[in-house]
């Protein structure tokens, strides 16, 4: 007699067997479990007959087997009433424990591989099979679980009742768990998870308590191995007594190189008076990394001393520390020392790609002519986020445009931001402007409200004008009208800028006269135009005025072509009249100026072009 039993799980065993000489010879192929209706099921099968077991219906692409079982009734060989009809189970759980008894005529033997039910209620997170069994005990007939089912798992329910696990925490874990695909029904059924989702949720809950559960023997052994590896990584060359024990959590995993370097310094210091796990000032001073920096002049002796004191503190007398103290450096202090050292050279590393030499710090190396500009003392912390921005190499930019390119995220300019002004750097290196003159101009300029050393746009324009006044030429006489090239510089700059805009518009198919120009292009044009408006030589004067500087009105008479307009109306209408658009486009605008002794007149002619190649008109 073979007895197959389960308390809360309906168990199926797929096997084949035959009766040979009064004994049963059988082989188990595989086993599966799924939930039942809570009834105890005991099935007796006559070993003298071939048991009837249905076959496997199919194997899904993901490797899971969809099976339908049927055990035919063969009276009078059942030990009890037959089990209730078993519905098909589209999804089956994992392996499970069974209890099997084999009986033959005249003899009896039994073997058991069962597991206690109570022990399965709190399985460890690493035991996937035990978690599957726990899932099988509490899932529904479809082999799925809702959020309420998860809450009713005894282990989870106990944590919720004790307050060890909050409902909100469980809800977060539930929402992060992949749901089992299902067809949407009319009543909007609840989301469900399968056995894989339950294992993930169970382990997520376990992770919240992994520091408090004490772990198993395997976890303790793993932690001990990690500790041993960590100690060996920083062991010196002095045997077991040279191991350096680094407190866990004090340093990050990225400090492995520092551990090796510290262990090397410890090994070099053995027998020289150093403590087994600490190094002295002289030993750190002889470190190749430090000695090379000092020899190159990149790191000063006073900077090294300051870093040492910051890392280990002042000594109490004796020893060879710079302050005469006798403090030694442990591994934590060594890490602190190196991180402070890295911060000293952080600016240099950031600026290397832009060929910008940073300020060498308070008490850094000697100043040389390798491109560094000394703009006086300033807070280097302001420079760290700035030096990676490119230098402004364009010359003769209007002050407002230059300010917008130099300003920081607060739209202010300080001495740190002036480092990026290429033209100013050239003047300082060429001797046209001294650092004292620059400092005087900067200090004399009004600062932005709420700041002591930052300029807003108005302040920068005044600072720019102060520098420009240092190089201002003498005012020309009336006879020099139109003959001074410096007076025409702004006009040439404006025409060059407009030419570039027209070239880009032609290449990209934009509208003429800057009607499709970008905001930045328009801003630069308006900056130059505003400068021109303030120039006396650009004013229109009457021919009868004496001693005045400017353009004679009669010189403006003639035909003028529009090359740029910032008019929002023209941009909206795509021209002056608004006739362009659709199948036509704006082709240009001419202005005809005429004047007599008594009046002046202006006439506009707009050209409209047919996009389809037809005749254009004015």
UniProtKB/TrEMBL annotation:
Coiled coil: 487-535
Positions of region (Disordered): 103-122, 208-245, 349-373
Biased composition (Acidic residues): 208-233
Keywords assigned by UniProt, alphabetized: Coiled coil, Signal
Annotated transmembrane regions: none
Keyword Phosphoprotein annotated: no
Signal peptide: 1-25
Record-given protein name: Uncharacterized protein
Taxonomic source organism: Cyclostephanos tholiformis
Lineage of the organism: Eukaryota, Sar, Stramenopiles, Ochrophyta, Bacillariophyta
